[in-house]
Design brief:
- The chain is α/β, with parallel strands linked by helices.
- It has a single domain, classed as Rossmann fold (3-Layer(aba) Sandwich).
- It has 10 helices and 6 strands, in the order E-H-E-H-E-H-E-H-H-H-H-E-H-E-H-H.
- It has a 6-stranded parallel β-sheet with strand order 2-1-3-4-5-6, sandwiched between helices.
């Protein structure tokens, strides 16, 4: 089985490594580099040219989860099943937009020296914040992509309309997997997903970085979801 995977902000192919190992031969996770476009809409249009022009199994993590949702709503005929990790496909809150604008302003005036260790740790659940392998991996992925990618991803996501309200109209199966300790996802948004008809919701004991923190749990969920009739 082949599953096409959209990563999150400042994440590269290493995001899927632990989960791929746990999956073994059941499935191949195809990492798709997020297009360097100015808006989310143009990123979706670029993905339409990159992804196979046939029904596929798609999943996305964080920013990639939003893009996977938006792609699936725009091109439902090209989706078999959709899974979203660590994202709610909801609109961007004013507070989140302001945080991104502050970050962009800081980078434009001070430059970017990489994600601070404290911030990398905060993306993990409490029991994983002392895991040096995971903290270092987050920092290494960020360093490999660098300032241009960070600026593009922050700018393109300043305008993020709600997509969740359209997912209850699709005919393919949809599953959201979220971390119980994810400080980047609001309880209100999770409740909104749970109240959306036709969407399966699973909660994992972790923070935001679900594929790194719970690869075995995630591999079991992926196997169950994508092999269902």
């Amino acid at each position: 089985m082949e599953i096409y995977c959209l990563p999150g902000t400042m994440c590269d192919h290493r995001l899927w490594g632990f989960t791929q190992k746990a999956l073994g031969r059941f499935a191949t996770l195809h990492h798709i580099v997020l297009p360097m476009e100015n808006t989310l809409e143009s990123m979706v249009d670029a993905l339409a040219k990159i992804l196979p022009d046939k029904p596929i199994d798609l999943l996305g993590f964080s920013m990639g989860g939003y893009l996977a949702s938006r792609f699936s709503v725009k091109y439902p005929e090209r989706i078999n099943r959709l899974m979203v990790f660590s994202n709610t496909a909801t609109g961007l809150l004013d507070s989140e937009r302001k945080q991104r604008e502050v970050a962009l302003n800081w980078v434009s005036t001070q430059g970017y020296r990489g994600i601070p260790r404290k911030k990398a740790m905060a993306m993990l659940g409490a029991h994983n914040q002392s895991n040096e392998v995971l903290v270092r991996l987050i920092q290494d992925m960020d360093k490999a992509l660098g300032e241009p990618v960070l600026v593009q991803q922050l700018k393109s996501s300043l305008d993020r309309p709600d997509v969740l309200s359209n997912l209850d109209k699709v005919r393919f199966p949809v599953c959201f997997a979220l971390g119980q300790e994810d400080g980047l996802v609001s309880k209100e948004a999770i409740d909104q997903i749970k109240n959306t008809a036709g969407i399966e919701v699973r909660m994992a004991a972790c923070g935001h970085m679900l594929p790194l923190e719970q690869p075995d749990w995630l591999a079991n969920l992926v196997t169950e979801f994508y092999s269902a009739d």
